[in-house]
Specification:
The strands form four sheets. The chain has a five-stranded mixed β-sheet. With 404 residues, it is of the alpha/beta class. A hairpin with a 4-residue loop joins strand 4 and strand 5. Helix content is 40%, strand content 20%. The chain is globular and about 70 Å long.
């Protein structure tokens, strides 16, 4: 159960988030789901209807008792922008509070540019300007790296070449709205908790493969961030001694062995793809039946399986969700992964389900948007000042606009 704090305004905003992510609920459903008394819920809903944020929908089906009136959000309650930052491009989505993607765009981006913050601001402003003018609750940003645990949005990312970048503060100041920054896998885990298979599980593990290798841990319904906001960086677990150099500066990391760049380099060396070939070319060869190409993925699946099995032994999740752009080739990863994964587990955990999600680039950005959608569920300590600003915007009509 996701519980807001005892503050009445936070409870009001949690009601809005609950309705947005459920598509509609009765007063009794809301009281049970948010852990408040039916009497308090009745009063809060009455106030929200009066404020023009919630409306009554159709009656719910009855099994013999008195049917309950369903509640839903007023359309103008606001939308969310989510942004996924990669070293060579940025993906942006606009979503409803319930997670439905309204618009999606992707643009080239150079993360190594000295002036990279200015283009990021311009991209969000341009994306917003092309929208329909609905009020924006906030912006969520997913990055491949560690984000400070104080909620200020300071980023360290070896993949992007960023160190102590005050991303959240700069974007929030320039855009004039709340901005929540998080490790992109943690953001994806939040989306899985709100909208995906994780909705039915309080404890689960998200593993991503692609350009990097990462993990997100959800325990008791909350994402585990660690003391410095860097929990889940499994790509930098040393898998072999004296292995290839990783972007983090160490050698033999799992990311340096089975990340996208490593697979492409191996395929080029072996002549499976040409010197300028990409991971898409490698997958195409594997899909066409090339045994050498298939074997590259199969062998990459083996160390991934062992690493994930170790996480399952430590964390004891109910399910494992595998995602990321690398899953486009999962049919070739699967045999190596499953064999090593199941073999490395103790008998009591060998049956843990592994769910592989279909993937496109906007999934990362949708995960970032979920950071804003989830903020009303939690007290200020977990999402900082930016989370409090989101809750305040949900608890009263939105007057602030991006770029104002």
């Amino acid at each position: 159960m996701l519980r807001p704090s005892g503050n009445a305004d936070v409870t009001r905003s949690a009601i809005l988030a609950f309705l947005g992510t459920s598509g509609g609920a009765s007063r009794a459903d809301l009281a049970r789901g948010l852990g408040v008394s039916p009497a308090l819920m009745t009063q809060l809903v009455k106030d929200l209807i009066s404020d023009g944020l919630v409306r009554e929908l159709a009656m719910s089906p009855s099994n013999g008792g008195r049917p309950a009136r369903l509640l839903g959000l007023v359309a103008s309650v606001g939308r969310v922008i989510g942004m996924k930052v990669a070293k060579d491009h940025v993906a942006l989505v606009e979503t409803e509070l319930g997670g439905k993607v309204v618009r999606a765009e992707s643009w080239p981006f150079n993360a190594s540019s000295v002036t990279f913050l200015s283009p990021l601001v311009d991209l969000v402003l341009g994306f917003r300007a092309a929208g329909g003018g609905a009020p924006i609750l906030g912006v969520g940003v997913g990055v491949p790296g560690s984000v400070d645990a104080q909620g200020a949005g300071v980023v360290d990312s070896s993949l992007l070449g960023w160190w102590q970048v005050p991303l959240g503060a700069v974007l929030s100041r320039e855009l004039g709205v709340p901005v929540l920054v998080e490790n992109n896998v943690n953001a994806l885990a939040v989306a899985e908790r709100l909208y995906g298979p994780g909705r039915d599980h309080a404890d689960f593990l998200v593993v991503t493969i692609g350009e990097g290798v990462g993990a997100g841990f959800v325990t008791g319904g909350a994402v585990v961030r660690g003391s410095r906001g860097g929990a889940g960086e499994i790509g930098h677990i040393a898998a072999v001694m004296d292995g290839p150099r990783c972007t983090c500066g160490n050698h033999g990391c799992i990311e340096a062995l089975i990340g996208e760049e490593a697979l492409v380099a191996q395929a080029r060396r072996s002549g499976v793809i040409p010197p300028d070939g990409s991971v898409a070319d490698l997958q195409a060869r594997a899909d066409a039946g090339d045994a050498m190409a298939q074997n590259i993925f199969l062998e990459a699946g083996r160390p991934l399986g062992r690493i994930v099995a170790g996480l399952v032994q430590v964390l004891d999740p109910e399910i494992v969700i595998v995602s990321g752009e690398g899953t486009k080739a999962w049919s070739h990863w699967k045999a190596g992964f499953e064999q090593s994964f199941r073999a490395a587990l103790t008998s009591d955990r060998r049956s843990v389900p592994v769910i592989v999600e279909s993937w496109d680039d906007e999934s990362w950005a949708r995960g970032a948007a979920a950071l804003v959608a989830s903020a009303p569920f939690y007290s200020g300590e977990s999402s900082g000042e930016q989370g409090r600003r989101v809750r305040a915007r949900l608890s009263s009509p939105i007057e602030e606009a991006i770029g104002s």
